[in-house]
Structures are given as structure tokens and as C-alpha cells.
Amino acid sequence: MEQEGFIKAIGHGIQDMCYIWAKEMRNAFSDEGVLIFCILVPLFYPLVYSWIYNNEVIRDVPVAIVDMSHSHLSREFIRDYDASPDTKVAYYCDNLEEAKQLAGRNAVHGVLYFPEDFEKRVYRNETSHVSTYADMSLMLYYRAVYSTAVNVANKINSKIQISRSADFTNQEDNVTANPIKSSNVAIFNEPGGYGNAIIPGVLMLILQQTLLLGIGLSAGTARENNRYKELVPISRHYMGTFRIILGKAMACFMIYCVQAAYVTLCVPHFFHFTELSDPLALWGLLIPFILAVTFFGMTLSCFVRYRENVLLLVIFTSVPFLFMTGVSWPLSNIPGFWEGVAALIPSTWGIRAFISINDMGATLDEVQKFIIPLWIQVIVYGCTTFLVYRYQLKLTRKRAYSAIENIKNKALAAKTEKGTSTETSDTDIPEEEAENQI
Length: 438
Known about the structure:
Elements: H1 2-30, H2 32-52, E1 61-67, H3 72-83, E2 87-93, H4 96-104, E3 110-114, H5 118-123, E4 131-134, H6 139-164, H7 170-177, H8 194-225, H9 241-270, H10 279-300, H11 307-324, H12 336-343, H13 346-360, H14 368-437
Parallel strand pairs: 1-2, 1-3
Antiparallel strand pairs: 3-4
Helix pairs in contact: 1-2, 1-9, 2-8, 2-9, 6-7, 8-9, 8-10, 8-11, 8-13, 9-10, 9-14, 10-13, 10-14, 13-14
């Protein structure tokens, strides 16, 4: 009998879990906010973001020239600089003040300044200087202006070295110009562009932030619609903590398995970004990543009182979360405190693992140092989710029992009042009849 009761209880639990899962799936497609952030945004926002950065490198950055030397060597430098595909000479200025005004109007994003003694110092066997000013509002401008100037300077230096040498053959000239020969071979990010470097991290962050938004909006809606304004409603299907957690997590996991496959496989293919991912390693990453984000969001949902709160919280944290991953800022320059904060966020490990898998072709064994922290987060945030929902369930029951007691007390008070009035009317009738008889 006990065994049959236990099996029956498990069966009821599975039925309730499936009921909650089906309800959450219906809510995902019926709630406009959840539909937008969990379904539509992961479908279209990665396309827009990838399309913006589809041009990997910036070309023809306008530069102003301030040539105070007016020499053959400075004109040669300017010709080679203008011939580069990354920059173009847009203006010639008489002084730096005029070039500053052009930069202030965003007419140019860089300035080259040649001093009066530029060529004279070279002929006197002294070190000459070219001053480069670049627009730092965008690192791509700085890279184009500065790297092109360095390449042109190296080329002219080689010519000067060859002209001053006593070599007789071309081979000797090559050795003089390049005593140590080097070659730059891009193994992973072949275009050397910003898109291949940053887009993989952004894609994983989009998955996390939209899932957090969906869970938070759903929690805010539940508090607004529930009778006692709590996270867990009063229903016979919501009588167990595990069935509530598993039902909600199943809905999130099923939706975001599809979204994750689309974002990590289709979007990079559409825009010809680097794709070296191994399917086993990719799914070995996505499964713990989605679960960790789901339980992380369900834990945070206890702090969401209104739907609008989650929008402010999640959108505000998007950029800091991206910086703390080390994608756009070196890990060696991140303070220890913020490294500790980053370790608590699933996107930190998810982004690092996805870049290793997708951009570098890492296998599942090679990214275990990122996968293991994600599974630890699944366990830890799963436990915190259990504690949060158990507390919410007890709080809901307490308020329900309190409301029932209030109703009983009111009913008892009304019944007592009615009984008192009835007794009073029964004793008055004989007295009136007696008065009438008198």
C-alpha cells in the first residue's frame, strides 16, 4: 500500500509538472512582453547586430595633413599613406589649429604632422619624428590611422637603410632592410576584423539577457495576476516545489535550445564569420549554459515585483557583463573583485567557452575549465531556486490560510450577531403580546 501511494504521488507530481510546463509555454506565446524578448529578439537582434559589424575592417578613414617640412621625403610619406586601403588624405592644413577644427567637426578622424626639420634630421643621421593624432572615440579609427603610419614609416626606413649601405646585390639589400624576416599568419581571425572578435561573445550574451528578461517578465506578470501578489499561485497543481521548478525550467530549456541552435549555428553562417565549432563540444556547452542561466534567472525573479523592474536591471548590466568576460578588455587588467563578480555570471564562462569552440576549434575536453564552472552554477543556482520557491510557496500558503481564517472569523461573527438578534426578537414578542392583552 505504501509503495502504491508513493508511485501515485510521483504520478501526480509528473502530471502537475507537465501542467506547469504547458502553462508556461502558453504564457510565452500569449504574453506580449515574453513573446518579444524570448522569441522575437533572439531571432532578429543577432541579425541586426551582425549586419552592422559585417564589414570586418574600416576603409578610407579621412586624415588631415599638416606638412611643415614641404620636402621630398614628407611628400613620399604622404603618397604612400594615401595609397593605403585603410586611410585617405582628405585635407591639407597650414597648421595644427586648422586640423583640430576639422577633427572637431568629424570631417577627419586623424592628423599627421610633419615638423620643419623632418627631412633635415634624416640627412644629418638623426632620428626624425612624425606626429600622429587619432580619433579615440572608436578603436577602429585609431587602428587604421596609427598602424598605417607605422607601416609607411617602416617602409621608408628600409629604403633609407638600403641607400646608406654598401651592398652590391638585391639579396644583400633584403638582408639589410629585414635582418630578421617575419611573417604574420592569422590562424583564427583571418580578416583581423572587429566582427569576428566581438560578435561570438555578443551572441551568447543576447541568449542570457533575453532569457533573464523573459523569466523576469513572467515573474512580474505572476505577481500581478496572483490573488495574494506572490510568485506562486494558489492551485492544486502548485503544491510541490520540485514540480514548479522543473515545469518552469522545462519550458525555458525547450524554447532556448532552439534559440541557441539558431544563434550559434545559423547567424555566424549567414554573415560568414569564423565557424570551427565541433557539434559535440557546442552542445556540451549550451546545455549547462541554458540551465545555469535559467536557474540564475529564477533565483533573481524573487526580487522582481513589477514587470518594468527587470527591464532596467537586465539592460543596465549587459555592457558590464560583456566587459567582464575579457572579450573586449584584457583579463589581466580586470581587478580581482570584478573577476570574482564575473565568475558568478553564466555568460562569463559561456562566452569564453563559445569563443574557444567556435573561433579556435576547441574540443569538449579542451574547454572543461569553462564547462565545469557552468555545471557548478547549475547546481548552486538550482539549490537557490529551490530555496526561493519553497519560501514563496510557504508564504503563499500562509497568506491563504490567514485569508481563510479571516473569512471564518467574519462568518462566525456574522453568525453570532445574527443569533443574538434572533434571541432578542424572540423575547420581545411575548412582552408585546402581554402589553396588548393588558
